[in-house]
Predict the structure.
Amino acid sequence: MSASTTPVRQSSVRAHNLALVLHTVANSANPPSRAAVSAATGLTRATVSALVDDLLAGGLLVEVDPPPRTGAGRPAAGLALTSTGPAGLGLEINVDYLAACVVDLTGAVRHRHVEHADQRPADPAQALAALGSLAARARHAAETDGLIVAGAALAVPGLVAGGLVRVAPNLGWQDVDAVQALLGIPELADLPITVDNEANLAALGELRVAGGDPAGHHSPPGAGSGHSRPGEENSFLYVSGEIGIGAGLVLDGELYRGVRGWSGEIGHVTVYPDGRPCRCGARGCLEQYAGQEALDAGEPLAAAALGIALSAVVNLLDVPVIVLGGAYAPIFASLRDGIEAELRARVLTSALAPVVLRPASLGADAAMRGAADTIIRGVREDPATWLRRLT
Amino acid sequence: MSASTTPVRQSSVRAHNLALVLHTVANSANPPSRAAVSAATGLTRATVSALVDDLLAGGLLVEVDPPPRTGAGRPAAGLALTSTGPAGLGLEINVDYLAACVVDLTGAVRHRHVEHADQRPADPAQALAALGSLAARARHAAETDGLIVAGAALAVPGLVAGGLVRVAPNLGWQDVDAVQALLGIPELADLPITVDNEANLAALGELRVAGGDPAGHHSPPGAGSGHSRPGEENSFLYVSGEIGIGAGLVLDGELYRGVRGWSGEIGHVTVYPDGRPCRCGARGCLEQYAGQEALDAGEPLAAAALGIALSAVVNLLDVPVIVLGGAYAPIFASLRDGIEAELRARVLTSALAPVVLRPASLGADAAMRGAADTIIRGVREDPATWLRRLT
DNA sequence: GTCAAATAATTCAACCAATAAACAAATCCC
DNA sequence: GGGATTTGTTTATTGGTTGAATTATTTGAC
C-alpha cells in the first residue's frame, strides 16, 4: 500500500465499493445474486443492496433471470452488466487501413468498421478526417442501438507523449495532434478522446482476453476461477511485429508506460552488438533481424534474435508470459521452436518455471479492441463518475 | 485506479488519512503546523487535528519548536517524526561480512554493527547464529535508547522466493530458511522478519536517499520541492556489481519484484550471443564481461557490455536513472564514459532525454539500510496498524 | 395443504469519520 | 490596548457502512 497523495473522504469509500461490486459482477461466471456479491466482496448484504440500487438506477447493471436454483429459499435475482449502457469507441489508424469499433460494457464488440486504404500518401489531416467520419458512423450506429458512447481512444503506430503523436515513421507523421483533429469533427466534439501507441493498446486488448474477464472469448489454459488472479496471466509482454517492433508491457494487470511513456521499444534492443546498422543509428537492433522487412526476406536469424531479446526481458522482469502479435501471429508456428530454444538456454529461471509463449488471440483487431477497452475500463473502474454524469 | 479486491469501510478511510498525514509531515522540509498539513493534504484542519492527536498519542509524531514566525497570528506547533518510536532492524549477510543496523522513523541510522569474517566456510546455521547475536545486540542497544524495534529484514546475495533463500551461489547456500533460523533466537523470536535479495533492498536504500524523503542525507541534483514526484527520481534501476550482477528495479517509487520474485537478473542478459560461456549454461552473459571477476582481470569490454545491457533496460522500460552500486560504485569514474557512449548510441530516445547515470550514494551499507527502511516504511505506510498494536 | 426451514433482499437504528462553521487562543502591528 | 490574523478546537451535520430485525419467497416434510 503506497500512501497516495490525495485525501480520502466518505464519498471515496462509496466510489471504491461501487467499483468493487461492478467488478465482482463482471468477473462472475454466472449472474450472481446480491447475496453472492456480498459473500464475494465481504461487504454486508445491506450495503451491496444499496450499491446495486445505484448501479441499476445508473444503467450499469441489469437484473436478469436468476442462476439455476440450488435448494430451498427465496430465489435470487441475477445481476449482469448492461448491454445498453456506456460503450467505448476504439479507433485505429495504420499504414493500410482505418478502423473503428464499439465495445459495450460487457466487452462485446457491437460494431466494427474497417476501411482498407493506403494512408501513406495522405497527409495527417486527410487521414484523420477520414477516420473521423468512420468514427462518427460507428457512433451513430451504436447510439441507435441504445448505447451511450463514453469516450474514444485512438491507436497509432508511433511514439506518443503528452497527448501528441511525436513520430510515426511508417505513416510519415511528426508531432501530430490527433486528438484535436478528431475533436474538430462535430459528431465527436463532445467525447473525451485519447491517443496511445498501437502496441500498448493491443497489449490491453490481449489482457481483456487473457485475464480478469470471462466476457472475453476464451479462457487461457490453466487459468483459475473467475477472480482477478495475482499475476499468472495478468503479467505479460505483448510483442507486435510490424515494420518496426513494439511491445506493450502489462504488469499485474496494469499497462506500464514508463516514466515518460516511452517504454516498450524492444525493436531497438541490441541483439548483435556489432551487427547490421539500424536506421536508429545503432548496430544490431532486433528490428534488423526480426522486423517485417527481415521476415519478408526470409531472415534465418529472426527467431533466434527474438529469443535473445525476449530472454533479456524475462531475466529483467520475470514476466511469465509472452504474446506474439502483429505479423508474428500468423507465423507463430514457425517461430516458436527457435524462440523457445533461446529462452530455455538464456533465461536463468527457465528450469524453475518455463516461459509461456503464445500467439495473440485477437489478430489485427487487437489494438482497436484494446483502445475501446480503455474506455469501458474507465467506466468499470470508476462507476461513481459515470453515475454522477446523470446530473 | 485499479479496483482492488477488498471492501473499504470507514476505518480504512481513517487508516489512509493517518498515513497521508504522516507522509506529509515526513516529506516536509521544516516541521509543519497542523494548518500546513491541512493545506498540503486537502483535509480539514479539524480532521488533521484529530489525526495528529492519534499520531501523537501513538508515539509516531512529536510536537517540536515551531518554524520561524512569519507574520501575525497564533504561533503554530511544529510537527515532526519521533526519534524514540518504532525502528527498523536491517540485517545483511554477505561473503565477507555480517552487518546489522537500526534506523528510526526519521530515517536516521541509530546503530550500526559490522563484523568482518569470511562466511563461506561457515554453514548456513553457523552464519545465521552469528548474525542473530549481532542482531540481538543491535536490538538491545536500540531499545535502551527508547526505540521499539518493529521488525527486521535480511538482505542476502541470492535468489529469494516464498520466504526461502532458494540459492545463494557465493555463500554456497541452497533452500535455506533464514527467517526460521533467526526466529529461533530468543531475543528475536517476537519480531516479524523478512528476507529479500540484496540488490532489491539496496535499491530501496537508494530510493530513500534519492527520492521522496528529505530525511535522506542529500538531495538529488535537480530534484523538485519536497513532495513525492511522479517519476523522475522515483524510477530507477539499481545495478549491484558483485561476483554476480543483480539489479533492483524501482518503478514509481515501488520496488518491482516480478511475478515470482525473480526480477532483476541483469547479470544473465545476453550481451554477445556467441560470447564466452557462462556458468548458467548460456553464452555471452553480462556477468562474464562485467562481473567482479572480469573487472579484477581488467576486462576492457566491461563498460561497453554494461552499456549494451543497460540500453536494453532503458529501451524496454524507459527508466530515466541508473544507479551503479556494489563494486561499480568505487570505479564509477572509469566506467562512466564507456557506458554513456553505448547508451547514447543504443537508446532510441536518448536524444530526447539523456539517461542519468550515477554512482550509489550509500556504498556498502545500501542493502542493510534498505532492509531497515522496509520496516519503517511499513509503519509509515500503515500507521493505523502500528497504533492498534497498543492494545 | 399446511407448516417449518432456508435463503434473498430490505428496513432501521447505531456508529464512525469527515466536513463546515463557529469559537477560542495566541501573536503581530498600529 | 485593540483590531487583524492565523492556529487550533468544539459542535452539529452529513454520508456511508454495519448489524439485527423484518419481510419475501421458495423447498421439502408431514
In short: The mean pLDDT of chain B is 90. The longest helix of chain B spans residues 124-144.
